Fold:
Amino acid sequence: MNKHLRYFVIYCAIPIVVVLWWWGMFSSAEVNEQDAPAYRYAYLEVEGPYSKLGSKQAEVQALLKLQKVNYTYPITLMMSDPRVTQYKQRVARIGFLLSSNANVAEPLKLDTIPARHVISVSIKAHPLFAYGKTYGALVKYCEQHGMGLQLPTVEIVEHSKLTVQMPLGKE
Structure:
């Protein structure tokens, strides 16, 4: 093997592959049917491009800290299908899970999602890969089972693991 190629592989290609592996690029999403628990959450509603969700999540977190409300994991409810909804008309709820006795003040809103039967898709990966892999697996599952995407989907990030839940039947 050429000396330069060997150095390239050792010092460039291998480290890049290791980082991509660490970030979960080679991970597969797990899909299963399950009963999801009820969730109580504080949120802000976002209209427009889903690229705004990260800044809104930081805003919700800052408001919860300001109001001295204990929260746990981030939650997002995707109300619009980005495949068929123009980006300016997309709607989502972005927030955090709360305990059953926590309360919030305006501008935050409070809601609950009842326990329900869902298709759950999970992956432990960097967000750069996680969202595409989970929704790709969910859409593939829907196609294989002759069903359409049911909204809202619920996204929860817990310890670097993204879980997307799609309701089965009426919520």
In short: The chain has a mean pLDDT of 89. The first strand starts at residue 30 and ends at 36. The CA atoms of residues 153 and 166 lie 5 Å apart. The beta strands are 30-36, 39-47, 71-78, 91-98, 109-113, 116-124, 153-158, 161-167.
